[in-house]
């Protein structure tokens, strides 16, 4: 394990912001994670855990240690129709999705092409096209930052919700995720309940015979057509969560905005697309300094090349205030601001 000083994080965050880490180290085993924690504690430095930086907005240089988790274990055991897959936190998520589907282990295909590493995937319970990681997750192996103790958290310990888990709470943020245990199926029976996916797949009958491989390809095509590639224009995907509103709130809003799209959610509530709210408010394509709102996807804030994280924070606050003012809805941010 090697600790470097004054390391640029420009290629380690999907916005491409040019900030630096006072100290940087990449740990590819549990022992190396422990070694890094011991070093950081002996120096009494703050620590920031980093995966691939696709959900992190750096607004300043990072003091202390940036610990990149690079554990790349991947093992599978198959019994009857079940494939138990264990992945280290450093494995790239999309590589895992492709590898499992091509090995006849199904269940992750709807989550294809989501950037990032497996260690960060449970943190916001990544989701897309009708599935979330919690649908296939059995447990998460973690190490406690202060004590160095390792534990396995079950799915129910993780308290998953829409873009939420225990890891987003004060207690959960004490853990570093080392690996994730997933349960996949060897039966090729993908979930195709999500309307936009069904439409793209051109399906009319509810029980159409579709392979996971085809779902994977279709999800990749949809995502590539809708979301800007961070390699071309820096971004962190959706910047705000879709608000969940009560039916009374939706009724009131629909009196003023009859076209407001809503999707039914649990407990009689509705999910409202944040992209629609932001688009209707006129933000799509907006530019301010070096940053802006993507011109085809109102939910994606972008770095036009010379922007920085402080400008993104200002823009996000302006959008938040405008949406609150217009619709009385308080948007919640998806990425982590540092
Ligand atoms: C173009 C684009 C599209 C996206 N689409 C989606 C989507 O459809 N659905 C979705 O849910 N998300 C989406 N995202 C968000 C992002 O891909 C996910 O949140 C992803 O899981 C982040 O992984 P990462 O390794 O890059 O995390 P990072 O940005 O490195 O880290 C995110 C947070 O997790 C913490 N963290 C990272 N690794 C660990 C670890 N091992 N232990 C403890 N804490 C850790 C970090 O400290 C930070 O707080 C998208 C992002 C982009 C850029």
Q: Compounds present? A: flavin-adenine dinucleotide
Helix content: 25-40%
Shape: globular
Question: Rg from C-alpha positions?
Answer: 21 Å
Separation of termini? 25 Å
Number of domains: 3
Q: Biggest sheet, strands in spatial order?
A: 6-7-12-10-11
CATH architecture verdict of the largest domain: 2-Layer Sandwich
Q: Pairing-aware structural class of the strands and helices?
A: alpha+beta
Question: What this model shows, in words?
Answer:
The protein is α+β, with helices and mostly antiparallel strands and 338 residues long. The chain has three domains: 4-69, Uridine Diphospho-n-acetylenolpyruvylglucosamine Reductase, domain 2 (2-Layer Sandwich), CATH 3.30.43.10; 74-226, Uridine Diphospho-n-acetylenolpyruvylglucosamine Reductase, domain 3 (2-Layer Sandwich), CATH 3.30.465.10; 234-337, Alpha-Beta Complex (Uridine Diphospho-n-acetylenolpyruvylglucosamine Reductase, domain 1), CATH 3.90.78.10. Helices cover 25% and strands 27% of the residues. The chain is built from eight helices and 20 strands. The protein has helices at residues 30-42, 93-102, 155-158, 195-201, 212-226, 247-256, 274-280, 309-327; strands at 4-8, 20-27, 47-50, 56-57, 62-69, 74-79, 82-88, 127-128, 131-132, 137-144, 150-154, 175-185, 234-238, 244-245, 263-264, 270-271, 287-288, 291-293, 300-303, 336-337. A hairpin with a 2-residue loop joins strand 8 (127-128) and strand 9 (131-132). The longest helix is centred in the last third of the chain and has 19 residues, at 309-327. The chain is globular. The two termini are 25 Å apart. The structure holds flavin-adenine dinucleotide (FAD).
């Amino acid at each position: 394990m090697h600790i470097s000083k004054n390391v640029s994080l420009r290629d380690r965050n999907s916005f491409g912001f040019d900030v630096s880490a006072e100290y940087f180290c990449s740990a590819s085993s549990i022992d190396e994670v422990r070694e890094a924690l011991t070093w950081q504690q002996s120096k009494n430095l703050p620590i920031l855990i980093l995966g691939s930086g696709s959900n992190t907005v750096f607004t300043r240089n990072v003091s202390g240690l940036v610990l990149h988790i690079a554990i790349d274990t991947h093992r599978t055991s198959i019994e009857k129709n079940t494939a138990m897959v264990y992945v280290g936190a450093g494995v790239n998520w999309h590589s895992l999705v492709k590898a499992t589907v091509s090995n006849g282990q199904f269940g992750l295909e709807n989550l294809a092409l989501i950037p990032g590493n497996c260690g960060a995937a449970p943190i916001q319970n990544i989701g897309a096209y009708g599935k979330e990681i919690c649908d296939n997750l059995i447990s998460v192996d973690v190490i406690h930052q202060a004590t160095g103790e390792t534990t396995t958290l079950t799915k129910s310990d993780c308290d998953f919700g829409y873009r939420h888990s225990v890891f987003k709470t004060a207690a959960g943020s004490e853990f570093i995720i080392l690996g994730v245990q997933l349960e996949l199926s060897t039966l090729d029976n993908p979930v195709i309940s999500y309307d936009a996916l069904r439409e793209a797949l051109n399906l009319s009958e509810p029980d159409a015979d579709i392979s996971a491989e085809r779902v994977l390809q279709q999800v990749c095509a949809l995502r590539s057509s809708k979301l800007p590639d961070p390699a071309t224009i820096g971004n962190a995907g959706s910047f705000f969560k879709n608000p969940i509103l009560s039916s009374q709130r939706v009724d009131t809003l629909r009196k003023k905005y009859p076209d407001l799209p809503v999707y039914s959610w649990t407990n009689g509530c509705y999910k409202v697309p944040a992209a629609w709210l932001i688009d209707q408010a006129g933000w799509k394509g907006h530019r301010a300094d070096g940053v802006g709102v993507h011109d085809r996807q109102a939910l994606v804030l972008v770095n036009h090349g010379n922007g920085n994280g402080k400008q993104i924070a200002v823009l996000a606050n302006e959008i938040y205030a405008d949406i609150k003012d217009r619709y009385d809805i308080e948007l919640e941010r998806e990425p982590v601001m540092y």
